[in-house]
Amino acid sequence: MKLFFHFGRYFLLIKRVFSKPEKLSVYTKQILYEIDKIGISSLPIIAIISFFMGGVITIQSAFGFTSPLVPLYAVGFTVRESMLSEFCPTIVSLILAGKIGSNIASEIGSMRITEQIDALEIMGINSAGYLILPKIVAGVVILPFLIAISMFLGIVGGYIMGLAVGAVTSYEYIFGIQAFFEPWKLYYSFTKVITFAFLITSISSYFGFYTEGGALEVGKSSTSAVVYSSILILIFNFLITQLFYT
Amino acid sequence: MIEIKNIHKSFGSHKVINDVSFVFEQGKTNLIIGESGSGKTTILKLMVGLHEVDNGEILYNGENFPTLDLKGKQEIRKKIGMLFQGGALFDSQTLEENVRFPLDMFTDMSKEEKQERVNFCLDKVQLTNKNKLYPGELSGGMKKRAALARAIANNPKYLFCDEPNSGLDPKTSIVIDNLIQSLTKEFNITTIVITHDMNSVVEIGEKILYIYKGNPWWTGTGKEIFNTTNPELLDFVFASGFMKEIYHAVKNK
């Protein structure tokens, strides 16, 4: 029953979030601020993880393909497929659910317990819209760019590390990353990213917005935000994959 | 003017507010006093719509607030300034941005006009040249004054103050009390102050509602309160032996 309660309250909150903004210029400023906070600040960690994951997948593939029937360009192909289809859109989103999700939930949760949200309400401002809409818009706009950079750096990381350890040649790797490319898989990846961006920002905001109590509860909201965002990312990953592949 | 008529509120089976009626007059500092847990803050939250009333009317110049739709409520709320117990300043914004916030949201003032208004409000609360400080860099008293500056930024018709003196030293408390009273008079605002500070009651209490266990128990002025025969109110007023001694010393003179 509690699940239905949360579903109902979540959708009512989303309805409030998408009601007409009081002043567009203030919201636009907030969106730009959130893009910087959510997106730009996540770039270093995403870059490091993607670069090294690309390298690791290259080495594992190169030394794992022991059959002489498997051509060496399969390494580049494997890196591209892993990075584009699964690692960057899903695993990086899960990492971002931890980083961005906990940040959003604790920020909004702290505002709730220190009466800052009440202050917004009493000023006649739709607090849900003012606090949450810019985060959702910023997430949906900036995460696809972050993931695109992650894909690029993953493939570059594979190339540099593959060459450095002598796992592949430059020609074979570059041939591999271009081989059998199907553009629809990019639509598939970015559909996932946009969905995950919405889930991370809205679910984390939901848990922050309905925090009750003190600092301990802010911590609990933050944990719940990360756990539920991650679970829903995995469920939606399955659903979207099913939708595109069948 | 704000009038509350026969308001009731329960949380589950626990009755918190029972049949409270009162008229909060314009241009006066109206006080709601009572012990901790008596329901003072609940009344205030009902008045601004943070809680829903179970029964009764809350009339803002004749408009019944609880029956208004969200838009109607927001229109009334734009005329409200509120000073929260903890200040409730936005942590991510400087003092200047905090005070400018309602102006950004609800006015079409130019950048210069807004700056002028921000400086005026900060001057009023004696925080001149503190524009660029963040709430985390302010003392408790400064936070309260900054919150007061934000509350008056958009020329409110109604000012609500929830325990403005809590956690402050006596000297700073007097500064805050005097500020609230002078702003009330200068801008002819309907001010409602929640307090259990007897100093505030005596200093600024022009019209007082005493709440006892959620019930309206006594009404009067700051001067009349010492002549009461109401035993619960006497207990409240003279809870401190020091207050009793001062009162008798003044009376015997």
Description:
The complex is a heterodimer of chains A (about 250) and B (about 250). Chain A has helices at about 1-15, 25-40, 45-65, 75-115, 115-120, 125-165, 170-180, 185-210, 215-245. Chain A is mainly alpha-helical. In chain A, helix 2 (about 25-40) packs parallel to helix 6 (about 125-165) and helix 3 (about 45-65) packs parallel to helix 6 (about 125-165). Chain A starts with a helix and ends with a helix. Chain B contains nine helices and ten strands. In chain B, the strands form two sheets. Chain B has a six-stranded mixed beta sheet, sandwiched between helices. Chain B is of the alpha/beta class and about 250 residues long. Chain B has two domains: about 1-80 and about 160-250, Rossmann fold (3-Layer(aba) Sandwich); about 90-155, no CATH class. Chain B starts with a strand and ends with a helix. The interface between A and B is medium-sized, with 17 and 25 residues.
Helical segment count of chain A:
9
Averaging pLDDT over every residue of chain A, what do you get? 93
Strand order of the largest sheet of chain B: 6-7-8-3-9-10
Low-confidence stretches of chain A: none
Q: What's the gyration radius of chain A in Å?
A: 21 Å
Label the CATH architecture of the largest domain in chain B: 3-Layer(aba) Sandwich
Describe the biggest sheet of chain A?
Answer: none
Tell me, briefly, the overall form of chain A: elongated
Q: Provide the domain count of chain B.
A: 2
* Relative strand content of chain A: under 5%
Put simply, the count of helices of chain B is: 9
Give me the oligomer status.
Answer: heterodimer
Helix/strand layout:
The complex is a heterodimer of chains A (246) and B (253).
Chain A: H1 2-17, H2 24-39, H3 43-64, H4 74-113, H5 116-122, H6 127-164, H7 170-178, H8 184-209, H9 215-245
Helix pairs in contact in A: 1-6, 2-6, 3-4, 3-6, 4-6, 4-7, 4-8, 4-9, 6-7, 6-8, 8-9
Chain B: E1 2-11, E2 14-24, E3 29-33, H1 40-48, E4 55-60, E5 63-64, H2 70-77, E6 80-83, H3 95-106, H4 111-124, H5 140-152, E7 158-162, H6 170-187, E8 190-195, H7 198-204, E9 207-212, E10 215-220, H8 231-237, H9 241-252
Helix pairs in contact in B: 3-4, 3-5, 4-5, 5-6, 6-7
